[in-house]
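Predicting holo structure, zinc ion bound.
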Amino acid sequence: MERKFIMDTSGKTITCRAAIAWKTGSTLAIEEVQVDPPKAREVRIKMISTGICGTDDHAVKGLLSLNFPFIPGHEGAGIVESIGEGVSSVKPGDKVLTLAIPQCRECSSCLHPKGNFCEKQDVLPSSGLMLDKTSRFTCKGKKIYHSFRASTFTEYTVVPEIAVAKIDAAAPMDKVSIISCEVPTGYGAAVNSAKVTRGSTCVVFGLGGVGSAIVMGCKASGASRIIGVDINEEKFPRARALGVTDCLNPHNLKKPVQQVVMEMTRVGVDFAFEAIGLSDTMIAAWDSCHRSYGICLMVGVASSNSQLSLNAPDIISGRTLKGVCLGDYKTRDCIPQLVTDYLQNKINIDPLITHQLPFDQLHKAFELYHAGKTIRCILLF
Ligand code: APR
Ligand code: ZN
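Done. Tokens:
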């Protein structure tokens, strides 16, 4: 059946449903779109599931500089429908994840042993176009932009080959979409980037999807104390179940949260993570670290043009401030392994998924997200 279906659509424009952000802050509209066939070194994917990440919400609200109208979503799992000329790493029928940060294996980041922020990324800045500077999406005769080399809120998408990773054929496609972003971003920040040490103290600002995955990583690394900070106390029970030992709501504190963390730990934490994307909480995370050996990781995506202001003389005391994207993983090399690790019960992503809804209930999913009810809601096509 599938073979016949693949032969029917390959090389042809596909008409399907997709969510479009027409203008800044407007509600997403589910529309009929035309998806062009993949050009050379591109892959067309039939989406199976996609997570709603905080970054998608920032993008739709216009907090990041993206070109409108665009199709949001970057945390996706799907099956390759067809491939363009010269594609060799995937073939029709393969299970794949979309990658918001590609791995071209040719640029300065990709060639450096530690770099993962590939120069072919389209997040900072974002053009919303494929590598040849054109789009594959049209709606009502209008060009629709892509987002983050992914655009997963659509039944079919087209991405460059460098932004797609083949995963294990046994992967449960209704779940593994979160291994395209949330899991490497959070869990990876703790285990791979910070390399949280056994017996250490940690603080995590933001206990949403990404923060929860950070907590999982801290716990898996043997942290002895994990302080969780969130203004939504509904997030606390699940965070505790994942390993948070102390929960703080900054709104209920009489002192700045960093001062409370300092007092709780006497000297400051070994590792601090910011998973919200706000300058204030970034500063609070920095100020929560041990002055000499504390390591502060910035995981949240801040809004465009926002600035971070730190006390300059304090810098010399020795703390490390590090930004991290997708857990510093070289995406095509490392993300498929996380899927395999999940299949082999080495990591358990299930507690990170709180909701699954059909794609046409996208608005309900965003309502639940805005109401602070979700850790991750996955949309199913
Ligand atoms: N102080 C503490 N917690 C806050 C604050 C604040 N000022 N503002 C928001 N929060 C909490 C929210 O209550 C929520 O639980 O931060 C959490 C953010 O989680 P999500 O909205 O689920 O977003 P998530 O997908 O986890 O992404 C978090 O990481 O990848 C980036 O762009 C993404 O910047 C975003 C961040
Ligand atoms: Zn690269």
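The chain is about 25% helix and 20% strand.
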